[in-house]
Amino acid sequence: MRVVSGSLKGRPLVSPSTRLTRPMTAKTRGALFDILGPIDGLSVLDAYAGSGALGIEAISRGADSVIAIELGSEAIDAIRKNNQNLNLGHKLKLAATRVESWLDAHSGQKFDLIFAMPPYSVLDRHTLSRLGHLLNPEGVLVVEYPRQEDDFELEDIRLVKVKKYGDPQLAFYKNLQVS
Hints:
Layout: H1 26-36, E1 43-47, H2 53-60, E2 65-70, H3 73-85, E3 92-96, H4 99-105, E4 111-116, H5 125-132, E5 135-146, E6 158-164, E7 168-174
């Protein structure tokens, strides 16, 4: 697995050697960021971060900061190794906890872009809505879920697009509130 584009393009990423994570393919990652467009200067939250590849891709493409939330020990090790290997320093912060626990303790920081790629077995709309409440005005939440799952609305944010990539599909939600 490698960084697809940006300042870190082509750099290798460590991936957890477990079946508990579902790495997004480089092709899908590239398509996702093509849809998002420029992300220079954005603040990013990567919930259910896995290897941290989405957050690292965001930094490579110009995001200012990423908080990666992950609970799995092998995935946490992969994020730490990727952070060290790529010299990301303070741009990538790891929260080694459950997403729900992080939300319960969260201080209220808002984000421009949030990735939520939960294990399909824990796809919880209430938690996804809580993540959506952390969006800045015009911010975007991207949720990955299985193709057989119907599209769904979340509280206070609007579903604006769904793209299918094999089994996974990506839903793009937007906070349409004006600041």
